[in-house]
Amino acid sequence: MKKKLAFFILFIFLLSFVFVNAEENEYEHDDEYYEKMPYIWMTFDYEGAAADMTSDGNPHGVELIDNKEGIIVKMAGEINDPLSDPYFYFPVSHDRLSDIFCEEVQAIALVIKTDVAIKHPDAVNQPELFFRTVQDPTFARVGHPDWTDYFAGNETWAPGTEGYKATDDWQVLVFDMSQNSYWTSIPDRLRLDLFDVCLDVEYVVKGIAFFLQPEHALEWDGDFDRVAFEEEYAKANQPTPAPTAEPTEAPEETEAPKQTESTTTDEKDIENMTWLYVVIPVAIIVVLVVVFIIVRKRKER
User: What is the domain count for the chain?
Assistant: First the structure.
């Protein structure tokens, strides 16, 4: 019975060990995935993300709510009064996104979740991304020159994404920035117009990612956990550069300090103290041994 119990305990221990390792090793490093993953990225699944999302501009017609999955963008349109042109800004001034250079970044990917079935019938199934740069303060639209042409009635522009999919799962919206002549220098504002017109609907934004190549963004599965794993792996396995020996100037020769009488006296005092710490305990031990022997001989008599 004791043997069976021991084997059972051992089995449970090994099983728990396997499960723990399986959870830790959810991903395996892939060089090809690492080369194609986002150049810069940011998720909005933390407390305070809603406040950060308003740092570059106030949203219009939407309420931003913190959530463990991502920012909930709650729109206030109703059946008799549909909301027109709801939008919000991404925090490109945040530390996580402050190193974006337009000439390097050629695509932007958003990971979102929404139910397009309950949008307003008149709404265009097409999110729109507007941006402004440090070099040019005029707002431009992805796939479209600028707002001047837009208001002039020029609607012959290429969409930046295929639009929303009819699914309640996470989906990746990709905006190709490679052909936009206004996408230069550093982004100053980045604004997402969710729908032209919509009803009361919840819209969740998990994160945003910037890619060096549009095709890499189109192939990406939207898995930020995998991206975080690859980044940590790269940091942990980064080779340490060998230290380079820098020539140092030879120190100037200095005269040795003359030994003064006081220093000689101090050294002698230290030597004397050291001997005292050694001799006194030994002497005490010897005395105790002698006393013990004498007492023992007297008792034997």
Answer: 1
What is the Rg, in whole angstroms, of the alpha carbon atoms belonging to the chain?
36
Calpha distance 217→116 (Å, rounded): 22
* Residue owning tokens 């001799």: 279
160 in any annotated domain: yes
- Rounded-to-integer distance, Cα 149 and Cα 157, Å: 10
Task: Identify which of 235, 229, 186, 165 has the alpha carbon closest to the alpha carbon of residue 37.
Answer: 229
In a domain, 301, yes or no: no
C-alpha dist (Å) from residue 174 to 41, 95, 128, 146, 222: 14, 23, 11, 19, 11
Give the CATH number for residue 134: 2.60.120.430
| Cβ–Cβ < 8 Å for 116, 199 | no
Cβ atoms of 76 and 70 closer than 8 Å: no
Q: Which domain holds residue 76?
A: 27-236
Q: Is residue 254 domain-resident?
A: no
Read off the pLDDT of residues 221-273 as tens digits, 9 standing for 90 and up: 999 999 999 999 988 887 766 666 665 665 666 665 555 444 444 455 555 55
CB 55 within 8 A of CB 31: no
Average pLDDT over residues 82-92: 88
User: Interior CA angle at 65 toward 59 and 68, to 5°?
Assistant: 135
Q: Which amino acid is at 185?
A: S
What is the model's pTM?
A: 0.68
Q: Are 39 and 108 in contact (CB under 8 A)?
A: no
Q: Is residue 292 in some structural domain? A: no
